[in-house]
Amino acid sequence: MRSAASPPAPRAESVGQGEFNLGVLAQDGVIDTPEAALEYFERAAKDGEHAAYRASAILLDEGRGVPRDPERAANLLLRGVAEDRGTLIKHLTEATNEWSRDTLMAVQQRLKTAGFYASAVDGLPGPNFTSALTRWRNGGFNADVLVN
Questions:
Q1: What is this structure's pTM?
Q2: CB of 34 within 8 A of CB of 24?
Q3: pLDDT, one tens digit for every residue, the chain (148 residues)
Q4: Which of 41, 95, 119, 131 has an alpha carbon 20 to 30 Å from 84's alpha carbon atom?
């Protein structure tokens, strides 16, 4: 089983990083419950901890401690792509075997709706998927396509 999150590299503590660390502890059952990890990670993402988008999406993609929800996972992934420094694009395009096909298809569908993805919505990586994610990140973010 892949880890939804591990603590980020040391840096000045922020509210987002603190929430992220609580999410890590909750997912491991050290504090609170694994179900609470998603709430911690989502708060961390809102407070600027970009790694929390990926952590939240993993929980939703796998249904770990929460109901499985590829649509919501896709929304979080695209928000993360728009805000991080390219790490999530690399992860989505080079480690696609770590995501369910349903979640990748939901990401592709949102990119298609936004006008960035013209290929088949099939949950498979490729140069068009990478290009669409890059354009989304470089100013194409459109919150209107992030709906469940």
A1: 0.84
A2: no
A3: 555 665 555 554 577 888 999 999 999 889 988 789 999 999 999 988 989 999 999 999 999 989 999 999 999 999 999 888 888 999 898 887 889 999 999 999 999 998 999 999 999 989 999 999 999 888 866 666 566 5
A4: 119
Gyration radius of the chain over CA positions = 15
Query: Which residue, among 79, 81, 83, has the nearest Cα to 93 in the 3D structure?
Result: 81
Please check whether residue 103 is in contact with residue 57, taking contact to mean a CB–CB distance below 8 angstroms.
yes
Type of residue found at 120: A
